[in-house]
Automatic annotation (TrEMBL):
Superkingdom of source: Bacteria
UniProt KW keywords: ATP-binding, Biotin, DNA-binding, Ligase, Nucleotide-binding, Repressor, Transcription, Transcription regulation
Pfam families assigned to the protein according to its UniProt record, in alphabetical order: BPL_C, BPL_LplA_LipB, HTH_11
A GO CC term attached to the entry: cytoplasm
Annotated protein name in UniProt: Bifunctional ligase/repressor BirA
Originating species: Thiorhodococcus drewsii AZ1
Length: 332
């Protein structure tokens, strides 16, 4: 990491508490002259899209404190069994993509059970090559590497299993009006709250490795999410008090993921199907399926035992596999 970038992060960590810090204290903390403080503040604010407030006689602060990622706080929110399921927990200030990083390292032999979280992603990814907007310090960007003796094809239902357990966890935390949009979007009041990206690699008959990428909008502001091309929501809207527990939520999410991965390895998709269906609020609604250049209209008729989407069309019921289609509710 460059010296300039280290200085940015040192300044952010100092200001994260939301308290006023004098220019003199900032200069001493950064090892710069008093005259260089304002320039350092401006550069950091611009680089990381942060609002820094200046009050004469009091100093500088972030108007909204940041709960920065804390490895020990995350682990403390997990049970001993879940912690034992993790080989390593990495926290990055900035990374291109937590999932891309784990996929690269998996190819070099990284062991199963490594989790990576980042304050910011510079090349966050969604499904079908879309960008995942990843501003600094206000959301959760989390990826987990897991190895299976199974063939890659046997992991085809994993996105539904993971989506179901994440929705169920947030419901247990008190968030209502959650729904799942096949195959892997989590919605709150029909606006996107979280997304999953699952990447699998391995031998045709096994073994294989899987990287689960999870992005959850926690406290993202409208200006930060202005480039998102679909309606979105945040945990702060759905349950404000939970949005202020970033590390605790990260720990509970990791626990849910470890448990789901272990169970899927033993039992496959079947124990997750009914849970997914409880959050399937589009069931029975008219929908459009986008399949390459084709648009198929019909009625969402639920999911099959293998996780396929069933669409009721004039030609009858037709199954579609995850990874091939994108689902959109028809406009009224």
């Amino acid at each position: 990491m460059s010296q300039a970038m280290e200085r940015h992060f040192a300044l952010i960590r100092m200001l994260a508490d939301g308290q006023f810090h004098s220019g003199e204290a900032i200069a001493e903390h950064l090892g710069v002259t008093r005259a260089a403080v304002w320039k350092a503040l401006r550069r950091t604010a611009d680089q990381f899209d942060l609002e820094i407030e200046s009050v004469r006689g009091r100093g500088y602060r972030l108007p909204v404190p940041l709960e920065l990622l804390d490895r020990e706080a995350i682990l403390a929110a997990m049970s001993g069994r879940a912690r034992a399921g993790l080989t390593r927990l990495e926290i990055q200030d900035q990374i291109d993509s937590t999932s891309a990083y784990l996929m690269r390292e998996a190819a070099l032999g990284m062991p199963s059970g490594v989790a990576c979280l980042a304050e910011r992603q510079t090349a966050g990814r969604g499904r079908r090559g879309r960008v995942w907007v990843s501003p600094f310090g206000v959301n959760l960007y989390l990826s987990l590497l897991w190895r299976f003796p199974l063939a890659p094809a046997a992991l085809g239902g994993m996105s539904l299993a993971v989506g179901a357990v994440i929705a169920d966890l947030l419901r247990s935390e008190g968030i209502e009006d959650l729904s799942l949009k096949w195959p892997n979007d989590l919605l709150w009041r029909r606006r996107k709250l979280a997304g999953l990206l699952l990447e699998v690699s391995g031998e045709s008959q096994g073994p294989s490795h899987l990287v689960i990428g999870l992005g959850i909008n926690l406290r993202m502001q409208p200006t930060q999410g202005a480039s998102i091309e679909q309606p979105w929501a945040s945990i702060e809207e759905a349950m404000p008090e939970l949005s202020r527990c970033r590390n605790v939520l990260a720990g509970r999410l990791l626990e849910a993921l470890v448990s789901a991965l272990e169970r899927y390895g033993r039992e496959g998709l079947s124990p997750f199907i009914d849970l997914w269906r409880r959050f399937d609020r589009l069931h029975g609604e008219p929908v459009r399926l986008i399949l390459g250049d084709r648009v198929i209209q019909g009625t969402h008729a639920g999911i099959a035992a293998d996780g396929s989407l069933i669409l009721e069309t004039p030609e009858g019921r037709v199954p579609f596999q995850a990874g091939e289609v994108s689902l959109r509710a028809q406009e009224s």
